[in-house]
């Protein structure tokens, strides 16, 4: 076959809705076109968010004029000290030099030299990187979308700088603020101005300190996450009363909380509690709550009171001391439940689940479970992990996926159990 002279031309005709459709490649240059750069700006910004290393982010600015503009307009800032923690990190960031004096922040001028960072090169380079980024990019922006600061060592030395950086972010009307401060035995005290921000919609804190007398005025807050923090009932109450728009609330491995009572949050959609200390009770009154996840300690005897959450659809429980009676009383309040995950509920012995809404059911390492009766005609996915099959009866005619992880069980009984689902999508491990 001879090649045609001139521009390559390929035609393909498809029939669509009774009409002929012609697709033509008119130029070989289309093959080599930079299609990524032609994507909408918000998608390119999302691509930048996925780059892990700061140096990789900065390199995108030299790809083309458009990428330089995208880089300059990028309003998400992620400063992670772990990138400066490896053995060769100090050498990797040797190119970093202080900004000209006129562009240096006041905190840099006052504190940097006096802290003796000559003997602490990794901290030195991290501060230079953050200061240089703020000086060359953030100060020129009217507002920013996200500011994330992840500090894992020498927080006590960095605290004055952190206060300044966070203050700059709030002054720039930041929407999402994520502060991770890992300290041994102490907590990083956030600047008070954080809690008076009118623009913060997402606040994620790790290892930070919030006093129970702190004045909170986060009127537009929709997402709140507190991890590895010392909190009490007053702190939770202050957030609930001052932030009526909260939709997603998570308390992960926090200390000091004994009684958790949350109400007056009409928009609350998701609530998650991972217990670290001895929590005695969780009481939620949230009519629009759809997802609840509770993970208790092995020694926990926490009582769950969720009668005011009638629209719950997704329930995950890891509760070592939940008795049969408590379980049945709990799920009786959720007629719309679609997904149920029971993980290491070690005191369940005999349970009955009746639901025409349930679509997903997982029973994982509930080792003392001896009898289970399941009547869920619309169940689509089922998973069980344990020593033996405890199911006395199971009505799940629409089941599409079954996963069994068994330590010891007779092959015949397993085969008989699987045959009840016509073998569709069954996996036996």
Number of helices: 10
Integer-rounded radius of gyration: 28 Å
Shape: elongated
Question: Strands of the biggest beta sheet: in what spatial order?
Answer: 3-4-5-7-9-10-12-14-16-17-19-21-23-24
Number of strands: 24
Main pleated-sheet profile: 14 strands, parallel
Which ranges are low-confidence, i.e. pLDDT below 50, for 5 or more consecutive residues?
A: 1-32
| Cα-to-Cα separation, first versus last residue | 56 Å
- Supply the helix-strand structural class: alpha/beta
| Range of helix content | 10-25%
Average residue-wise pLDDT: 81
| β-sheet strand percentage | 25-35%
Domain At1g61320/AtMIF1 LRR: 147-300, 308-413
Pfam families: LRR_At1g61320_AtMIF1 (PF23622)
Organism: Solanum stoloniferum
Protein name: At1g61320/AtMIF1 LRR domain-containing protein
Explain what this protein looks like in three dimensions.
The chain has helices spanning 41-50, 54-59, 65-73, 89-92, 106-111, 121-136, 155-171, 233-242, 324-331, 411-419, and strands at 10-16, 19-25, 76-80, 146-151, 176-181, 188-189, 202-206, 208-209, 223-227, 248-254, 259-262, 270-275, 281-285, 291-295, 303-308, 314-318, 339-343, 350-354, 360-364, 371-375, 381-386, 391-395, 401-406, 426-428. The chain starts with 9 loop residues before the first strand and ends with a strand. It is built from ten helices and 24 strands. It is of the alpha/beta class and 429 residues long. The radius of gyration is 28 Å and the shape is elongated. A 14-stranded parallel sheet has the order 3-4-5-7-9-10-12-14-16-17-19-21-23-24, with helices on one face. It has a three-stranded parallel sheet with strand order 11-13-15. It has a three-stranded parallel sheet with strand order 18-20-22. Strand 4 (146-151), helix 7 (155-171) and strand 5 form a beta-alpha-beta unit.
